[in-house]
Amino acid sequence: MAATAGRPKRASQELLQEAAFELFQHRGYRGTTVEQIARTAGFSRATFFNCFASKAELFWLEVDALIASLRAHLEAQLAAEARPSLREALLCFAATFESSRIPWALQNYRLLEAAEDLAASGAGRVLELNRAFVRYLQETEKLAAIELHARAAATTATLVSGLLGWIDAGVTRGPFGDHLGRALIH
Questions:
Q1: Do domains 9-52 and 59-183 have the same CATH topology?
Q2: Of 52, 75, 89, 156, which shows the fewest CB atoms inside 10 Å?
Q3: Helix (H, G, I), strand (E, B), or coil: what is residue 7?
Q4: Which one is the CATH code of 9-52: 1.10.10.60, 2.40.340.10, 3.40.50.12640, 3.10.50.40?
Q5: CATH no. of 59-183
């Protein structure tokens, strides 16, 4: 299935991701090349790099969508007449987060032996979350700059570690909102 002018980029990304995850399960992350991924999906190596900057970027399609959804949720909360605290806004979002929405790569990152690559390619996404939290706090709290940035950083770290802890809890995890509520101290 070679890419055609009519195929949306997202569809090509999803096909490449699906092929990659299948190969990662059989060959491991390090044992799978970009060429193998592209060939399995029916694309060229060049098409792969038109869709992704690196092999590690394959992990982030669903996470990027979740971050966009969270940012939209926070913007909607800021537009509301009664603005909830950042903690309340995050718990409201977390209450809608079902186990079925956990990105495959986050569920399987330990099995993939790709933790370093995930961390490196995820750093920008963590910073994006932090910027969203800084913006929210600027609009809802009267804090000195140092407090604002410290609170946003603490919230970012809590959200990320809370999500990974919730994922690691497996079938006994319960709702994400409950888990996050115990982790968020602000």
A1: no
A2: 75
A3: coil
A4: 1.10.10.60
A5: 1.10.357
* Residue with the two structure tokens 């809802």: 140
Note the pLDDT tens digit of each residue in 119-173.
788 888 999 999 999 999 999 999 999 999 999 999 999 998 888 888 888 888 8
Q: Tell me how far apart the alpha carbons of residues 70 and 90 are, in angstroms, rounded to a whole number.
A: 8
Using CB atoms within 10 Å of the CB of residue 17, give its burial: 0 to 12 exposed, 13 to 18 middle, 19+ buried: buried
User: Residue 104 class from Cβ within 10 Å (0-12 exposed, 13-18 middle, 19+ buried)?
Assistant: middle
Mean pLDDT score, 90-113? 81
Q: Where are the alpha helices (DSSP H) in the chain?
A: 9-27, 34-41, 45-51, 61-79, 86-94, 104-112, 115-140, 145-168, 176-183
pTM for the whole thing?
0.81
Query: What Å distances lie between residue 146 and 40, 78, 134, 149, 150, CA to CA?
Result: 49, 22, 11, 5, 6
Query: How many Å apart are CA 139 and CA 125, to the nearest integer?
Result: 21
CB-CB contact of 173 with 87 (8 Å) = no
Q: What is the pLDDT of residue 186?
A: 55
Both tokens of 83, joined, read 């603005």
Three-state SS for 91?
helix
